[in-house]
Write a structure and sequence with these properties.
Elements (H helix, E strand, L loop, with lengths): L7 H4 L10 H11 L5 H9 L8 H4 L7 H9 L3 H9 L5 H7 L11 H4 L7 H15 L14 E5 L3 H12 L3 E6 L7 H4 L8 H13 L3 E4 L9 H7 L2 E4 L5 E2 L12 E3 H12 L5 H4 L9 E5 L3 H12 L4 E5 L11 H9 L3 E3 L2 E7 L6 E12 L5 E5 L5 E4 L2 E4 L3 E2 L3 H4 L27 E3 L2 H4 L4 H32 L1
Parallel strand pairs: 1-2, 1-4, 2-3, 4-16, 6-14, 7-8, 7-14, 8-9
Antiparallel strand pairs: 5-15, 10-11, 11-12, 11-13
Length: 483
């Protein structure tokens, strides 16, 4: 497979791009420094200790060559730094914005271990890639030599877009099918614009469209075509739909008006940022302005909700989480940001009922305490008797995580095998599902996870699909010879 352009990231190893001529680098640097705070990026990059064991790289799911492109940045060789960063990631500026670096690369920085504060790796990654876009260093997607085979990708999130890009570069015809009217998945509709500007996502999508990838937006598998019909259209199919089914709470009053799902709230906000007409904003159903907002949950989605509510002009915003701060699954950096913006965290608390007749007026809460560790090793929360009280609320947002939808039924594909958690069952050696030629990657396989893991899965499944497609082409060629 080393002959295919999509495997540039494999063959590069630890090397970085060849040096450009010194005068060209100097010209780049002089021009960019007019409008960018390069000294800040250089200063941060120069703090990298170039340690013998790059823990930052090993704790990055993409195994980005972080120390190498930090060194190039420190030397002012920004174009080379970008090229090296781009060699292992299809979306470095997106990862630089939304990866939980405090849990991954920065959290494992040797300088951080020594108590001097981690190198701000994410900010440098964002900076060098944004610079590359501005300076025209981001090259267009150039299709490889046509192979006469086509691939269907179901889901235009990070896993699907990554696979689509690499397979198109390898010469395949690629069609991407997505239920939404814009590509990007949760990058577009699930993550607020203050964390990930939507033009940053759209320019990546536009690059893929300009490279000849065909997008079928507003397309639902099971409604507009069955899985079997897509298999007949394409030589291989990838399912990368993510997980969108919101986890719920069992409690009296859960069906009251004003108790809403996190993704509905975030999608409405993101649609409004595109300039779309959003009736639920106009009637206040999915808008926090002037309301006492309670968000239930402790992950990154909950943080997105509380910070969005603040920006919409909520009267107050409280976040209920059943464990304490140390056991919160979301980014501690996000928690700190939310606190600075005025969010109140109510630790060791859980809802037991929702009050109000025609509309929610409050959340009845019980205090919690941490008991013995559960199967995951975390101390299990349990109710603290006699600690019940009520929190005023006009809007309650459920942000408890996501589960897979019923894909076999939705897709009209009863032969599609799933695990007991509802995720797609794959052969982990090939990433193929129970249906021949149908692969799966991203959250629909691993469960709700990080964008960077979806990109990694999209990169990995590309390799397996390419092998499958080459074998299929050889088999057809042999059949023609035999005939």
């Amino acid at each position: 497979m080393a002959d295919t352009p999509m495997l540039k990231f494999v063959t590069m190893g630890q090397a970085y791009p060849a040096k450009r001529p010194a005068d060209a680098r100097a010209a780049d640097f002089a021009e960019i420094s007019q409008s960018f705070p390069i000294p800040d990026a250089e200063e941060q990059a120069s703090r990298c200790s170039q340690c013998g064991v790059p823990y930052c790289s090993t704790h990055c799911p993409l195994h980005n060559h972080i120390p190498d492109w930090l060194r190039l940045t420190a030397e002012g060789r920004l174009r080379e730094a970008y090229e090296l960063s781009n060699a292992t990631s299809t979306m470095p500026e997106i990862c630089g914005r939304i990866c939980p670096q405090d849990r991954l690369c920065e959290g494992n920085c040797v300088i951080e271990f020594s108590g001097h504060g981690a190198v701000t790796i994410g900010s440098v990654e964002k900076f060098i890639t944004d610079t590359a876009w501005k300076e025209g260093w981001v090259e267009p997607l150039v299709p490889g030599n046509p192979r006469g085979q086509s691939v269907g990708v179901i889901g235009a999130g990070p896993a699907g877009l990554t696979t689509a890009e690499y397979l198109r570069a390898a010469g395949y015809d690629v069609h991407v099918y997505d239920r939404h009217d814009r590509a990007g998945g949760l990058l577009t509709y699930g993550i607020p614009g203050f964390k990930l500007e939507k033009d940053v996502v759209m320019r990546r999508v536009d690059r893929l469209k300009d490279g000849g990838i065909v997008f079928h937006e507003g397309f639902e598998v099971g409604r507009d075509a069955t899985m079997e019909e897509l298999r007949q259209r394409h030589d291989a199919v990838l399912i990368a739909t993510g997980v969108y089914k919101a986890r719920d709470i069992r409690a009296p009053g859960i069906g009251a008006k004003g108790v809403i799902k996190a993704l509905d709230f975030l999608t409405a906000s993101n649609r409004a940022s595109f300039g779309d007409k959003v009736p639920e904003h106009e009637d206040g159903t999915l808008h926090a302005a002037g309301k006492h907002v309670v968000v239930i949950g402790g992950g990154d989605t909950a943080m997105d909700c509380v910070r969005t509510a603040i920006r919409q002009g909520a009267k107050s915003v409280k976040c209920l989480y059943r464990r304490d701060r140390e056991n919160m699954p979301g980014s501690q950096r996000e928690v700190a940001n939310a606190e600075e913006e005025g969010v109140e965290f109510v630790w060791l608390s859980a809802p037991i009922a929702f009050e109000g007749t025609e509309h929610v007026t409050g959340v009845k809460v019980t205090g919690m305490r941490l008991g013995q560790p559960d199967a995951s090793g975390r101390r299990a929360p349990e109710p603290d008797p006699g600690s019940e009280y009520t929190i005023e609320a006009d809007l309650v947002i459920k942000a408890l995580g996501f589960d897979p939808e019923d894909l076999p039924k939705m897709f009209g594909a009863d032969d599609l095998s799933v695990t007991r958690w509802g995720t797609l069952r794959v052969d982990h050696k090939t990433m193929m599902t129970s249906m021949d030629g149908v692969f799966a990657a991203g959250d629909i396989v691993r469960g709700a996870s990080l964008v960077v893991w979806a990109i990694r899965d999209g990169r990995d499944v590309t390799d397996h699909m390419h092998k499958y497609l080459k074998a299929k082409a050889r088999a057809k060629a042999s059949e023609r010879v035999a005939a």
